[in-house]
Design brief:
Layout lengths: L10 H15 L4 E6 L6 H14 L5 E4 L6 H7 L8 E5 L2 E5 L2 H7 L3 E4 L15 H10 L3 E7 L7 H8 L9 H6 L2 E4 L4 H9 L6 H9 L4 H29 L12 E5 L5 H15 L3 E7 L1 H4 L3 H16 L3 E6 L3 H11 L4 E5 L5 H6 L3 H8 L4 E5 L12 H7 L2 H23 L8 H19 L1 H19 L11 H48 L5 H16 L1 E8 L5 E2 L9 H10 L3 E2 L11 E6 L4 E9 L7 H4 L1 H66 L7 H31 L8 E3 L1 H11 L8 E6 L6 E3 L1 H17 L6 E9 L2 E8 L31 H11 L4 E4 L8 E7 L8 H9 L14
Helix pairs in contact: 2-3, 11-13, 14-16, 18-19, 18-20, 19-20, 19-21, 20-21, 21-22, 21-25, 22-25, 25-26, 26-29, 27-28, 28-29
C-alpha cells in the first residue's frame, strides 16, 4: 500500500470501483488535444504524438485530419496510414466524409479524429463527429482528437459574448469530461498573431479577415484564460478522483480551499468575516463547519441561536455550511478537511488558561497533532467579545427547561439512594463487590435515560451511600481501612467514565435516529409524489408530509396566467404581498430570513428546473422555537429538498397537461390541414378553368359592350383573387405537413428583392417603393423561391393596408450574425396590441373589413422564415409612422465552416438560381 494510503477502503466502494474499471477496460481511451483557438498547434501535436507511437511500433490509422492548408501540419501527416474518406452526395456536390463503417471493420488499436465538434453531412449515421467517436470507443478503439474552447457547449455563449461570433458547432461538456486524457496545447496571444501574419494559420485572404474579427489580441487572451481555467478544473477533478480511487487520506495542497470552524463562544462572527475576507483575497472556495458535541446539545437557547446565526452569516457570505454530530471536535474537523481536500483550517484563538490547557488540550492543538499536513490559521478575537451577561429575557427563555433539568438530577440522586437502601437487606448474602456492581448498574441506567450530568451525580451519591451503609464502621462516613478509599475512588472513576460513555452513545443514537427519520420522510414523500397526476394530489401530499416532518402548517399557493399568486380560502393569516415578493424573486422571505423577519410565516418559493411553480407557506406550530429550526442548515436543506420535490412534481403535472393539450391541438391541426388540402385541391381545377373562361370572355368576338366588359373583368379579378386564396390555403397545408423541402443555396439578397418587386408590380402600382439595401451585404444561404414568396406577401400586405400614394420601403442590413430585412410603410400602422396576433393563421389586420384575404399571408411568412432558422416580428413604431415587419436570416459562421465550403462560397457568389420552382412543385 502507498504510504499515504492510511485509510482502509470501504468494501462496497472497492467492489463498485472494480466493476467500473472492468467496464472501462472494455472501452477505448479518448485523448483530447485542447486549445484556446485555431492555430495553436492542436492537430500538429496530435500528429507528432501519432508519429512517435508509430515509430514505437504502435498500429494506428488516420481517420480524418484537417490541415487547412498548413504546410507544417501536412508534413506531419506524411507517412501515416490514412483511412480513405467516403464520398457523399449532398445537394448536387460530392463531399468527402469520415467512413465510420470502414473504420469499425478495420478496427485499428488507435485512430486519429480531428475536430471532435465537427458536424457531419446530412444523411450520415450520426449528425456529429463526437457521436462517431463514441461508437469507436464503444468498440474498444482508442481515439486521439482535438477541440477548441469555443466548441464546448457550456462556454459557447461566453465565447460569443467575447468575440461577437457564435460558433454553431458545439460539443457537450460531458464528452470532454469523460475523456481519459486532456492535453493542453497553449501558446501566447502575440505568438499566435505572429503565426497568423506569416500565413501559418489561414491562407492570406482568410488570415486578413480573421485578424479583423475573431483573431484580435483581446479575444485571444480571454480565450486562453478560459482554456486554462477549464483545464485546471479538469485536472482538479482528476486529482480528487485519484484520491478517492486510492483511498488517500492526507491532504494534498493542490487547491486554496479554506475551512473555518464555528464554535460556541462569542466572537464567532468575527472569525467568519475574517475567513470570508481571506477567501476573497485568495479567490478560493470556503467551508464553515460546526461540530455539535453532547455538551453543546445542552447549551442554553440563546447560545444555540447565536451559533445558528453565525452559520447563517457564513452561508450568506458564500460559504458551504455543514453541521456534524460528534463527541470529538478535532477528529471531526480533520476528517472533514481531508474528505474535501482542504489544506487550510481557520479557528478562533482560545482563551483557555494554562491549567485548562493542561487538563484538556484545545481543539486547535489536537488538530495540529492529528493532521500535521494541514495549515492552521488562528484568528485573534477582539476585546469587545468578552462573555456577555445573560439578560432577563434569556433567563425567561431558558426558564421552561430548568424544572425538567432539576428533576432529572433529583431523580438520579434518588435512584442511587433507593438502590443502596434496597441492597441493605441483601448484605448477608452478597459481597461488597456485588453491591458495588449494583450501584454501577444504577449509574449506567441513569446515563442512558437522563444523560451525563445526572449520571455523574448518581455516581457520587452511590459512592457516598456505599460508604455510609455498607463499609464498616456502618452508618458513618468514617473509613476504618485505607483500601476502601481506593475502592471509593475506583467506583467513582468507573461510574463517571461509564456515565460519560453511555451518554455519548445515547447522543449518537439520537442523532442517527433523527437522520434516519429525515431520510425516511424524504423517501416516502418522493414515492408518494412519483405517481400523482393532479395538482390537488400534490397539495394534499405536500401539506401532510411537511406537517409530519416539520411540525408546521403548510399551505401551497399557485400562480395564475398573469403570474399572480392565488390564496386559498382558508389562509386568512397569509400576507400575499410577502408571498408575491418571494415568488417573483425566487427568494425565501418571512421568519428566519433577512426579508421581513418579523412575520410568523416562512415563505419558500417552489423552484423547478424550468421556472418557479408556486410558493410554500409554513406556519410553525412550536412558536417559541419557530425561528431556531429555520436557522439550522441541515433543517433548511431538508425543507429545500421537500420544496424541490414538490416543485418538480408540479412541473411534471404541468407538462403532462401541456402534452395532452398539444396532442389534441396536433390532431385538430392535422384534421384542419387535411380538410384545407382536400378543399384546395378540389377548388383549384375549377378556379383555373374560371380564370381561363373569364379571360376568354373578355376577348370574345364580337366585342362586348362596355358594361359587359366591366362585368367580365370584374369576374376575372375576383376569380384570380379566389385562386390566390386557395393557393395560400394549399401552401399553408404543405408547409405544416413538412412536404416542402428547402433548396438552400448561397446567393445575394438583391436578386430576390428584385424578383419580388417584379412579381408584386400590379399590387404596388398606386404606391411608391424604395429600397435601402446596404452595399456590403454578404451572401446568405436560403431558398430563393420561398424567400421571394415572403417578400411578396409582405409587400402585398403593406399595399393592402395603406392608402394610395403611400411609400413602402425595403431595407436590409447585417446585424451581428443575422441578416435583417425590414418592409415598412408610412400608413396608419398596426392595431395596438396585435403585433403578435397578426402572424397567426386566419388572422387579419382589421377584423371587419372589405379588404380581400383570409389571413394566411403572414402566417405563411412566419412558417417559411422559421424553417430557415430565422425570426419574423412586427417592430414597434411611434403613432403615425406606419408599420414595419422585420425578419432575420442566419448568416452562418465562416470561421467554423470547413475550408471546402468557404471556397465554394467564394466561387458561387455569382451563381443565378435555376429550376428552383420545380423543387417546390
Amino acid at each position: 500500500m502507498h504510504p499515504n494510503d492510511s485509510q482502509r477502503p470501504d468494501p462496497d466502494a472497492l467492489l463498485a470501483q472494480v466493476q467500473a474499471q472492468e467496464k472501462k477496460a472494455a472501452r477505448g481511451r479518448l485523448r483530447i488535444y485542447f486549445g484556446a483557438s485555431a492555430g495553436v498547434g492542436k492537430t500538429y501535436a496530435m500528429l507528432a504524438a501519432a508519429r512517435k507511437l508509430l515509430a514505437d511500433g504502435q498500429d494506428l490509422l488516420v481517420g480524418v485530419v484537417e490541415t487547412h492548408g498548413r504546410q507544417d501540419t501536412a508534413a506531419q501527416l506524411e507517412g501515416l496510414p490514412l483511412l480513405p474518406l467516403k464520398a457523399v452526395e449532398y445537394r448536387g456536390k460530392t463531399l468527402q466524409e469520415f467512413d465510420l463503417d470502414e473504420a469499425l471493420r478495420r478496427a485499428p488499436p488507435l485512430i486519429l479524429m480531428d475536430e471532435l465538434a465537427h458536424s457531419n453531412v446530412a444523411g450520415s449515421r450520426h449528425p456529429k463527429r463526437w457521436q462517431d467517436v463514441e461508437e469507436l470507443l464503444a468498440a474498444g478503439i482508442d481515439v486521439l482528437s482535438t477541440v477548441n474552447v469555443q466548441h464546448l457547449e457550456s462556454l459557447n455563449d461566453v465565447v460569443g459574448g467575447i468575440t461577437g461570433i457564435r460558433v454553431a458547432e458545439t460539443l457537450p461538456d460531458t464528452v470532454f469530461d469523460r475523456a481519459d486524457e486532456v492535453v493542453l496545447v497553449d501558446i501566447p496571444a502575440d505568438e499566435l498573431l505572429h503565426r497568423l501574419k506569416l500565413g501559418k494559420v489561414y491562407k492570406p485572404q482568410q488570415a486578413e479577415r480573421a485578424s479583423q474579427n475573431f483573431f484580435r489580441k483581446g479575444n485571444l487572451i480571454a480565450l486562453r484564460e478560459l482554456a486554462l481555467r477549464r483545464t485546471a478544473d479538469r485536472v482538479q477533478d482528476d486529482v480528487q478522483a485519484y484520491r478517492v480511487e486510492k483511498s488517500i487520506n492526507p491532504v494534498w495542497k493542490t487547491g486554496a480551499a479554506l475551512l473555518v470552524c464555528v464554535g460556541p463562544r462569542a466572537g464567532g462572527e468575527h472569525v467568519i468575516r475574517s475567513a470570508a475576507r481571506l477567501a476573497s483575497q485568495l479567490n478560493a472556495e470556503w467551508h464553515a463547519l460546526y461540530v455539535e458535541t453532547p455538551n453543546l446539545q445542552r447549551l442554553p437557547a440563546r447560545e444555540r441561536e447565536r451559533i445558528l446565526k453565525t452559520l447563517k452569516l457564513a452561508q450568506n457570505l458564500g460559504a458551504r455550511t455543514a453541521i456534524v454530530a460528534s463527541a470529538d471536535i478535532a477528529a471531526s474537523v480533520v476528517e472533514y478537511a481531508r474528505g474535501a481536500n482542504i489544506s487550510k483550517v481557520i479557528v478562533g484563538r482560545s482563551r483557555a488558561g494554562l491549567l485548562a490547557r493542561l487538563w484538556n488540550a484545545p481543539p486547535a492543538q489536537r488538530m495540529a497533532s492529528l493532521a500535521p499536513d494541514v495549515d492552521l490559521i488562528e484568528v485573534g478575537l477582539p476585546a469587545s467579545d468578552a462573555p456577555l451577561r445573560r439578560s432577563a429575557g434569556d433567563e425567561e427563555a431558558d426558564a421552561p427547561r430548568r424544572p425538567s433539568r432539576h428533576w432529572r438530577y433529583i431523580f438520579a440522586a434518588g435512584a442511587s439512594l433507593l438502590t443502596a437502601i434496597a441492597s441493605e437487606p441483601l448484605q448477608p448474602y452478597l459481597d461488597l463487590a456485588n453491591i458495588a456492581m449494583l450501584s454501577l448498574l444504577t449509574v449506567v441506567l441513569v446515563a442512558v435515560r437522563l444523560g451525563r450530568g445526572p449520571a455523574a451525580l448518581a455516581s457520587l451519591v452511590g459512592v457516598a451511600c456505599f460508604d455510609f451503609i455498607f463499609v464498616p464502621p456502618r452508618f458513618s462516613f468514617a473509613v476504618g481501612d485505607f483500601q476502601y478509599v481506593i475502592t471509593f475512588g475506583v467506583m467513582l472513576a468507573v461510574g463517571l467514565i461509564t456515565g460519560h460513555l453511555t451518554a455519548g452513545l445515547r447522543f449518537q443514537a439520537r442523532v442517527s435516529s433523527h437522520r434516519e427519520s429525515r431520510a425516511r420522510a424524504l423517501y416516502e414523500f418522493s414515492r408518494e409524489l412519483s405517481g400523482v397526476l393532479q395538482t390537488e394530489q400534490i397539495f394534499d401530499i405536500t401539506k401532510s408530509a411537511i406537517e409530519r416532518a416539520f411540525r408546521a402548517r403548510a399551505t401551497l399557493l399557485l400562480p395564475d396566467e398573469q403570474g399572480r399568486l392565488q390564496a386559498p380560502a382558508n389562509a386568512a393569516e397569509l400576507d400575499l404581498g410577502i408571498a408575491q415578493w418571494a415568488f417573483d424573486r425566487a427568494e425565501a422571505a418571512g421568519t428566519g430570513t433577512d426579508t421581513l423577519p418579523g412575520s410568523n410565516i416562512f415563505y419558500l418559493p417552489l423552484i423547478a428546473p424550468m421556472r418557479t411553480r408556486g410558493l410554500l407557506a409554513l406556519l410553525p406550530l412550536d412558536e417559541p422555537n419557530h425561528r431556531r429550526w429555520l436557522l439550522v442548515p441541515e433543517q433548511r436543506q431538508h425543507l429545500d429538498t421537500f420544496a424541490a420535490l414538490a416543485a418538480i412534481a408540479l412541473e411534471r403535472v404541468h407538462y403532462i397537461d401541456v402534452a395532452q393539450g398539444a396532442l389534441v391541438q396536433m390532431e385538430s391541426e392535422r384534421l384542419r390541414n387535411s380538410l384545407l388540402a382536400a378543399l384546395s385541391h378540389d377548388l383549384r381545377t375549377p378556379l383555373t378553368s374560371l380564370v381561363g373562361l373569364a379571360e376568354s370572355l373578355a376577348l370574345s368576338k364580337p366585342a362586348l359592350s362596355s358594361a359587359q366588359l366591366d362585368m367580365a373583368r370584374s369576374l376575372q379579378s375576383e376569380t384570380v383573387r379566389m385562386s390566390a386564396l386557395v393557393a395560400n390555403l394549399l401552401d399553408m397545408a404543405r408547409i405544416e405537413s413538412g412536404q416542402v423541402r428547402l433548396n438552400l443555396q448561397w446567393q445575394a439578397l438583391e436578386e430576390v428583392v428584385g424578383s419580388a418587386l417584379r412579381a408584386s408590380r400590379p399590387q404596388l402600382l398606386a404606391h411608391h417603393v424604395q429600397t435601402q439595401l446596404a452595399p456590403d451585404l454578404p451572401l446568405v444561404r436560403y431558398d430563393a423561391v420561398l424567400v421571394e414568396r415572403v417578400l411578396c406577401n409582405l409587400l402585398e400586405n403593406a399595399a393592402k393596408y395603406t392608402p394610395p400614394g403611400s411609400t413602402i420601403t425595403i431595407a436590409a442590413r447585417v446585424l451581428g450574425q443575422l441578416l435583417q430585412v425590414t418592409v415598412s410603410d408610412d400608413g396608419p400602422g398596426l392595431p395596438p396590441g396585435r403585433e403578435e396576433a397578426i402572424f397567426e393563421k386566419f388572422t387579419r389586420g382589421e377584423r371587419e373589413s372589405n379588404k380581400p384575404g383570409v389571413g394566411l399571408g403572414l402566417a405563411i411568412c412566419r412558417a417559411i422564415v422559421e424553417a430557415h432558422g430565422g425570426t419574423i416580428r412586427a417592430q414597434a413604431q411611434l403613432p403615425g409612422q406606419g408599420a414595419a415587419l422585420v425578419f432575420t436570416l442566419p448568416l452562418g459562421t465562416p470561421p467554423a465552416l470547413p475550408e471546402l465550403e468557404l471556397d465554394e462560397v467564394e466561387t458561387s457568389a455569382g451563381t443565378d438560381k435555376t429550376k428552383r420552382e420545380n423543387d417546390h412543385e
